[in-house]
Amino acid sequence: xxxxxxxxxSCRFTGFVRKDFHVSVNPxxxxxxxxxxxxxxxxxxxxxxxxxxxxxxxxxLGTECxxxxxxxxxxxxxxxxxxxxxxEENLENGPxxxxxxxxxxxxxxxxxxxxxxxxxxxxxxxxxxxxxxVPLAVRVNIEGMHNVIELAKQYxxxxxxxxxxxxxxxxxxxxxxxxxxxxRPRTIYGVSxxxxxxxxxxxxxxxxxxxxxxxxxGVISGDPPGGGTTDYAVAVFHEGLLNKKxxxxxxxxxxxxxxxxxxxxSALFQFLNTPEELLRRRVYNVTAMSFTPEELFNELLKYxxxxxxxxxxxxxxxxxxxxxxxxxxxxxxRDWGWQHKYDLQRLVESMMRDVNTNFLSKHxxxxxxx
Length: 370
Ligand code: AKB
Known about the structure:
Its EC number is 1.1.1.103. This protein has 370 residues and is an alpha/beta fold.
């Protein structure tokens, strides 16, 4: 299947019937409180779709992001890449390619051969796992980012690099945390993200690079995240449904900003399609809600009444306590019409459905087979 898929994938895109449209933000749609952002991203123009490379594509955001972009730009125009071996499922909807972000020449070859226009750079070690291997985090999060930003400059790519609530630290105002304020994070993850924000802004002003960056809160998705401080809010669905118990590594009252993956990706999509002239900044806070572990578990108890929660705080508690509690994303709402759809109730309802259908049934099937 892998060989078949790679063989099917031609970087020259010969024989591909390209959808001749491009979804973009309506430039007339200045954000107001009343605006419905679904109207803002519906202008259809007759231009060719961008060809997009996603690095770190097999992490929490990559495959879902690829699905969204492929629906809008055509399957063959969105190339997932990673150094991890893909599953059959990863290869189902479009091209996958090996790409090591530490190999500059290799990246150059992909951009040239595949005629890439946009780069979405997801490769990164998250907050908790970064603290366990700082040299590796420096290589991946800082050296890797140097490579992709230089690449984007050389080939005039639009580049999106996500940042995070982790780009703030104990000196930052935590409730609310505005777009521009003191940062000074205390994790290598946060330090690398502030570095990416500043370097991207610098490359934009110095070289005209089309750098775009959203600071995401904890992202809740059916796919498991890898090594973050906000992971509890995903893990509890998996373990809760499977074992009816969960041991939480954060204190019950630790409030953090969060977003459901569907909102996260629609923010990304909308932001990527916002015309330059509407962007007053290159880096924006986005969020949907803030909650504590206790608030999330209480909502979950409505679906799993026999769920048993215990608390055993570890080092991640310190990280969480240095991060924003409430994220102020009013500038994104004002400049390009950002609006979230999912609050805590809708998020839990949707996660229950997703984890039940996509993970629990597969897990049960595996157990029966073994
Ligand atoms: C983490 O917890 O490290 C990430 C993040 C908030 O950036 N989920």
